[in-house]
């Protein structure tokens, strides 16, 4: 039976294959990945990732609760964020999570107070802003001096002075996260250099770190997803293998989000109208920025495919959503002659898609369908498409 559009469709086989490829790209037993829940927090996505043995990287108290509810071991949960509320710190400390990634000297005082209330010692990693340019979109750049994240590298000494004053805090690690959708690996090499400086500085002050957390950020291929359904994890991990100076027993933590879930999700929508505009032909679809906001928010490109037409002759279309905002567009593209009722597939929507959806205009949220529950062909009422879709 066909499914009401729009809906998110997740290919769990691709997710499994991606996780498999990621694990086999790791040659160092001290490398450990925490999945960044904020990229996609659908239950079965999280369960699949947990069953694969990854930890969880959380940026809110509710993400910590959700991770624990779905069976992640608190010892494999880390928590970052520049504005953690007292309630969220309470959740982190009372559950004894692996590490609170502290983003300011001011926060240390508050974490210490809350830990004292619980008669606990909170494990802290300093999130350092390394001032490394991730060479990505400015709205997803997080590791420059002008960004709000982390403790400025120039304040490292002051942060150490502060943490040593508090009995309920233990400095166990350092954390960095320079940005997202990073495809050029040089920024990660630069990050390693900065991390090495930080590690050496702390060592000089007599602090032996247990873990170095280098964050996430590895990008995916939005332009041509089929040419690279699985990101190049090998090259990515190699950079850290090569450039990071580690002491015996130190572990390296990664917080990958997009690269794990990005390609396994698609947004499926139906064409409502094909309208002749003054300058272009609009394909007006029933999915909009309330379902997938990345194009409106970051000018992001997502490949749009027409699942119902197979013609080789392509025409230019401007694919837009129904929301009363001019930014509600999926961009201009070439499609076979498109008509009302055609199914459209917006690719590479597994990360920062469904999690960022809203019910603006009082719209309903898109449903979630997993590949092992129903084939995409059956979702769109077209068994004929089954073979073509399996390759996707
Ligand atoms: C968003 C975020 C990540 C994940 O980033 P990706 O680009 O999806 O890999 C990792 N760590 C922190 C602290 C984050 O905020």
TrEMBL record:
Cross-referenced NCBIfam families: lysA
UniProt-listed CDD domains: PLPDE_III_DapDC
Orn/DAP/Arg decarboxylase 2 N-terminal domain mapped to chain residues: 17-261
Pathway info: Amino-acid biosynthesis; L-lysine biosynthesis via DAP pathway; L-lysine from DL-2,6-diaminopimelate: step 1/1
Annotated PANTHER family: DIAMINOPIMELATE DECARBOXYLASE, GROUP IV DECARBOXYLASE
Cofactor: pyridoxal 5'-phosphate
Reaction it catalyzes: meso-2,6-diaminopimelate + H(+) = L-lysine + CO2
The name this protein goes by in its record: Diaminopimelate decarboxylase
Residues at which substrate binds: 258, 294, 298, 325, 352
Residue stretches making up the Orn/DAP/Arg decarboxylase 2 C-terminal domain: 7-350
Listed InterPro entries: Ala_racemase/Decarboxylase_C, DAP_deCOOHase_LysA, De-COase2_C, De-COase2_N, De-COase2_pyr-phos_BS, Orn/DAP/Arg_de-COase, PLP-binding_barrel
Family: Belongs to the Orn/Lys/Arg decarboxylase class-II family. LysA subfamily.
Any Pfam family: Orn_DAP_Arg_deC
GO molecular function terms noted in the UniProt entry: diaminopimelate decarboxylase activity
Function statement: Specifically catalyzes the decarboxylation of meso-diaminopimelate (meso-DAP) to L-lysine.
PTM annotation (N6-(pyridoxal phosphate)lysine): residues: 38
Protein keywords: Amino-acid biosynthesis, Decarboxylase, Lyase, Lysine biosynthesis, Pyridoxal phosphate
Biological source species: Reichenbachiella carrageenanivorans
EC annotation from Swiss-Prot or TrEMBL: 4.1.1.20
Residues reported to bind pyridoxal 5'-phosphate: 217, 255-258, 352
């Amino acid at each position: 039976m066909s499914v009401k559009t729009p809906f998110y469709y997740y290919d769990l086989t691709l997710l499994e294959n991606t996780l498999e490829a990621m694990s086999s790209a790791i040659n160092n037993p001290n490398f450990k990945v925490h999945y960044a829940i904020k990229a996609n927090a659908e239950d079965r996505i999280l369960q699949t990732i947990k069953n694969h043995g990854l930890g969880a990287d959380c940026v809110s108290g509710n993400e910590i609760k959700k991770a624990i509810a779905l069976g992640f071991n608190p010892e494999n949960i880390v928590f970052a964020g520049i504005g953690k509320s007292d309630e969220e710190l309470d959740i982190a400390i009372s559950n004894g999570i692996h590490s609170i990634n502290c983003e300011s000297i001011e926060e240390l005082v508050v974490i210490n107070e809350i830990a004292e209330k619980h008669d606990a010692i909170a494990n802290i990693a300093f999130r350092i802003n390394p001032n490394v340019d991730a060479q990505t979109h400015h709205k997803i750049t997080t590791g420059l001096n002008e960004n709000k994240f982390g403790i400025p590298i120039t304040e490292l000494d002051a942060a150490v002075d502060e943490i040593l004053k508090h009995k309920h805090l233990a400095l166990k690690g350092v954390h960095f996260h320079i940005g997202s959708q990073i495809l050029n690996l040089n920024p990660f090499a630069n990050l390693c250099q900065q991390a090495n400086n930080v590690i050496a500085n702390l060592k000089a002050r007599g602090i032996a770190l247990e873990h170095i957390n280098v964050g996430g950020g590895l990008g995916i291929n939005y332009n041509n997803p089929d040419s690279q359904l699985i990101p190049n994890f090998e090259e990515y991990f190699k950079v850290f293998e090569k450039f990071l100076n580690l002491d015996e027993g130190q572990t390296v933590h990664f917080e990958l989000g997009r690269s794990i879930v990005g390609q396994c999700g698609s947004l499926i929508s139906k064409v409502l109208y094909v309208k002749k505009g003054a300058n272009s032909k609009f394909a007006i679809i029933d999915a909009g920025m309330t379902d997938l906001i990345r194009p409106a928010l970051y000018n992001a490109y997502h490949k749009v495919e027409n699942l119902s037409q197979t013609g080789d002759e392509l025409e230019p279309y401007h694919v837009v959503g129904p929301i009363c905002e001019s930014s509600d567009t999926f961009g201009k593209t070439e499609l076979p002659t498109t008509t009302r009722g055609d199914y459209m597939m917006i690719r590479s929507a597994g990360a920062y898609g469904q999690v960022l959806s809203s019910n603006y205009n009082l719209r309903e949220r898109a449903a979630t369908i997993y590949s092992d529950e129903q084939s995409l062909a059956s979702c769109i009422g077209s068994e004929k498409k089954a073979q073509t879709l399996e390759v996707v």
